[in-house]
Amino acid sequence: MNVRDFYFDLPQELIAQDPLEDRSASRLLVLDKHTGEIEHRHFKDILDFLKKGDCLVINDTKVIPARLFGVKEGTQAKIEILLLKRRENDIWETLVKPGKKAKVGTVISFGEGLLKGTVIDVVEEGNRLIRFSYEGIFEEILDQLGQMPLPPYITHQLQDKNRYQTVYAKHEGSAAAPTAGLHFTKDLLKEIEEKGVEIAHVTLHVGLGTFRPVKVDEIEAHHMHSEFYIVEEEEAKKVNDAKRSGGRIVCVGTTSCRTVESASTEDGILKAGSGWTEIFIYPGYRFKVLDCLITNFHLPESTLIMLVSALAGRENVLHAYEEAVREKYRFFSFGDAMFLTDRKD
After folding, report:
1. How much is the pTM?
2. Does 207 fall in a domain?
3. What is the pLDDT of residues 43-97, one digit of tens each?
4. Number of other residues whose CB lies within 10 A of the CB of residue 224
5. Does 49 reside within a domain?
């Protein structure tokens, strides 16, 4: 399967630069995953499509202010780093720009020495392992010095960093937000629970691998970066009980989807536990747990549009994207949402 099979033309002006004032006021394109039938609604209307007995799975990871700007000790050359994943204690795998200025042994100073980082190794794809030294608590220093790691297609400054967090964000560790969850408000989640829908929490710390371009022609040759996930016993039980009772498993975002699909048995039982996943879902994949998906509109030729196509079919998805472009939906992280469902469900 060729990466060009997942291309669509997107006008630049449809890339959302700012979050809406009301999270749940975004638009919602409802796509029947079997027939390709499309309906245009607003996100608040998700209530109309969820039923008593369903289980809504949300990813409660929290984005850390992972972008740091520093200077190289000695030359004072400017260096930007992005924290990707904590390897152990104060050692992080990072993306460094410009990489050529960050050879092993380089010391980078942040906040006039409040935080220092020493490059100790060069790993996969040129990422750097950096050991940090500081006085105090790392998370507090990071909160003081770091910026939210917004994707490169967002050029506007984010006024409120909480708008790049879901209202249920809890466990710190992500380099990017699980953006499908940004549409939910606490009030909307309460209404969903009152309707008899179970809400299950899982955690997957989102890495940049999710958003990196596919650099091979044949998608089967693409390798996903590993991401850490946690599924608690109580949350796994919610999913399994709903499935057993005939309810649908509705994942909020591709990250929740990849978590439950990674942590389940071949016969669709979600197992409690934690680990690293490199799951790559594309057409031909057989879903074991997920029935329906709430997601945003994704980049052309990305692994995310491939995942959505695995659920609803490439032709249906690309047709829906063309319709979204015609109807001037807002795209990507701060954009509008899709609900992939089965109207017969």
Report:
1. 0.92
2. yes
3. 999 999 999 999 999 999 999 999 999 999 989 999 999 998 888 889 999 999 9
4. 17
5. yes
